[in-house]
Amino acid sequence: MSNLERDPQEIRCATGVGAEAEVLTGREVLTGREVPLGGPRAMTVSRTLPGVRRRMIGAWCFVDAYGPERAVMRVPPHPHTGLQTVSWLIAGEVLHRDSLGTLREVRPGQLNLMTAGRGISHSEESAAGVLHGVQLWVALPGAHRHTSPAFEHHPSLPVLSGSGFEATVVMGSLGGVSSPATAYSPLVGAEVAVDGSCEVPLDLGYEHGLLLLNGEVAELGRGPLTYLPPGLSGVRLSGRGRVLLIGGEPFSEEIVMWWNFVGRSHDEIAAYRKEWMEGEGFGAVEGFDGAPLPAPVLPGIRLKPRGRVRE
Asked: Which InterPro entries does UniProt cross-reference here (predicted)?
């Protein structure tokens, strides 16, 4: 999924934590903001990363949650650099096309993973019906951000079972269970089905985020993303529902994230935008009935590389 905002300004940090987060013994409740995708009749998503203060959780740099609602997804061809897109559905079907020639539908419980690397373009669309899911981006570390673009579809994924929960491991590893999906930094992404009271294992060296997808889990509100700092071996959850768990080693590099590009400088982002608008560097998406998405105008200030937390 693209960032379809027509004026994607850099988010600036206010003094202190502000309204975005409630800090409780290291936990932060990231409330996010509502963003329409594709115009006045578009589906609305809740964007919790990047936020006003916290930009990333591990290498995870973008979290959009949407639905459940009856909607039609129609995202025209658009570019990406320096990241991976992770498409995960709870309900509905989405068709992916990309400039590698991929044509692949994703359904609930399956993973579509696209590695942009040095540059790729893609589109996403669905028929009318109930859609419910999350779209996530993973920032590629410097050593891999110019890798060749690639696409992976994983129709089945491993499951970690414990007392009161089952976790489908989408990316990385959880409790010794590893996803077959390609990851370029130490991280985890999992859908946790909670049924009763449980303790989900965590990696002590990772920071984590928890997002309630459906149902009721006592420790989590509906909508916000709950941040957990490194140093925890597990998290207790109780209730019945599905929870998205993301995490990873704190990302040490500063990045520039603007529109659908992840780079390292203003000039690099400007060059990506120029290439896209001139039809270079990102290939063509065949089969989509419509024009590619034009890039917004760059802001009147220079974009600055920033770390995972805005101080």
From this structure: Pirin, Pirin_C_dom, Pirin_N_dom, RmlC-like_jellyroll, RmlC_Cupin_sf
Say whether 158 sits in a helix, a strand or coil: coil
DSSP H helices, the chain, are 266-277
Q: Where are the alpha helices (DSSP H) in 155-293?
A: 266-277
Q: Is residue 242 very low, low, confident or very high in pLDDT (cuts 50, 70, 90)?
A: very high
The widest CA-to-CA distance across the chain, in whole angstroms, is 55
Number of domains in the chain: 1
Domain contains 9:
no
Residue 240 phi/psi, 5-degree rounding, is -140, 115
Among 61, 54, 32, smallest CA distance to 45 is for 32
DSSP code of residue 167: E
Beta bridge partners of 244: 191, 211
pLDDT tens, residue by residue, 19-67: 344 444 578 999 989 988 755 456 789 999 998 889 999 999 999 999 9
Burial of 16 from C-beta contacts in 10 A (0-12 / 13-18 / 19+)? exposed
Residue 307 lies in a domain: no
Looking at residue 66, which CATH number applies to its domain?
Answer: 2.60.120.10
Q: Which of 64, 86, 104 is nearest to 179 (CA)?
A: 86
Q: What is the pTM of this model?
A: 0.91
Residue 43 vs residues 64, 202, 241: alpha-carbon distances, Å: 11, 33, 23
209 beta partners? 227, 246
Residue range 75-104, pLDDT digits in tens? 999 999 999 999 999 999 999 999 999 999
Within-domain flag for 145: yes
